[in-house]
């Protein structure tokens, strides 16, 4: 019984240390939001060991213009052990499994160090997007294109999937504004609506840096309807600016 109690105490100590580290990173993330506009990390409201990240595709790559969602599952032994990270957004990349989103990256395995943070992991994944390693592929089709020297073929496929999965959707029937981890759910719902014959337009607010009311306004003027899907932080700001700046347009606000 004493040994079991000691084991439980050690486990509790590890969890408390992990929570303290994650809480420290959470506060740092809040400060980094302005400093690093390419990354948005969000902690789950009810579980500090579950995080979501939105990362912008690096410039001068087939992923430019896309916003990609990552899911983080942080172990209780963090930061002694690395988080499990996968792409939720479909991406055509040699080092990302096309179906599961699993990422082949050394820092998430044997090269992990407690000095890494969730924010720096996101930065490493962005670097991997810009500099793929075709010799250790999880997506063999993508890796084979690069290994055979067919860079144009690889870029064409990567751009196509970026356009289909990671870019805001244009439509005619309604404007949907979203950001953060709600973006993934909105894109899934938008595809369901398309399958039923509707044509929604999705605008990711994160992609509008600086905040671009002109783009939002033109979309609403076209569709005459706006649906705002968010986490309770941005909605009042958007609504007030719409009322002030687009008051002469007829809107249906849900």
TrEMBL record:
Residues 17-167 form the UBC core domain. CDD domains: UBCc_ScPEX4-like. Keywords: ATP-binding, Nucleotide-binding, Peroxisome biogenesis, Transferase, Ubl conjugation pathway. It is an enzyme of class 2 (transferase). One of its GO terms (biological process) is peroxisome organization. Its EC number is 2.3.2.23. The active site is at residue 104. GO terms for molecular function: ATP binding; ubiquitin conjugating enzyme activity. InterPro entries: Transketo_C/PFOR_II (IPR009014), Transketolase_C (IPR033248), Ub_conjugating_enzyme (IPR050113), UBC (IPR000608), UBQ-conjugating_AS (IPR023313), UBQ-conjugating_enzyme/RWD (IPR016135). The keyword Mitochondrion does not apply. The keyword Nucleotide-binding applies. PANTHER family: UBIQUITIN-CONJUGATING ENZYME E2. Belongs to the ubiquitin-conjugating enzyme family. This is E2 ubiquitin-conjugating enzyme.
């Amino acid at each position: 019984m004493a040994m079991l109690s000691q084991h439980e105490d050690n486990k509790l100590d590890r969890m408390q240390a992990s929570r303290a580290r994650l809480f420290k990173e959470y506060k740092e993330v809040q400060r980094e939001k302005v400093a690093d506009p390419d990354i948005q990390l969000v902690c789950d409201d009810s579980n500090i060991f579950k995080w979501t990240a939105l990362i912008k595709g690096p410039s001068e790559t087939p992923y430019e213009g896309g916003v990609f969602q990552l899911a983080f599952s942080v172990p209780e032994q963090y930061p002694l052990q690395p988080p499990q990270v996968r792409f939720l957004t479909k991406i055509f990349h040699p080092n990302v499994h096309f179906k599961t989103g699993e990422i082949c990256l050394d820092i998430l395995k044997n090269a992990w160090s407690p000095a890494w943070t969730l924010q720096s992991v996101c930065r490493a994944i962005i670097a991997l997007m810009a500099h793929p390693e075709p010799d250790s592929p999880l997506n063999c089709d993508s890796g084979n294109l690069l290994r055979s020297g067919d860079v144009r073929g690889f870029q064409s496929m990567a751009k196509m999937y970026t356009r289909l999965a990671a870019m805001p959707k244009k439509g005619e029937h309604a404007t949907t504004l979203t950001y953060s981890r709600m973006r993934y759910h909105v894109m899934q719902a938008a595809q369901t609506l398309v399958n039923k014959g509707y044509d929604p337009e999705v605008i990711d607010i994160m992609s509008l840096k600086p905040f671009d009311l002109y783009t939002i306004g033109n979309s609403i003027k076209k569709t005459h309807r706006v649906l705002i899907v968010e986490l309770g932080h941005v909605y009042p700001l958007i609504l007030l600016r719409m009322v002030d700046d687009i008051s002469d347009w007829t809107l249906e606000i849900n």
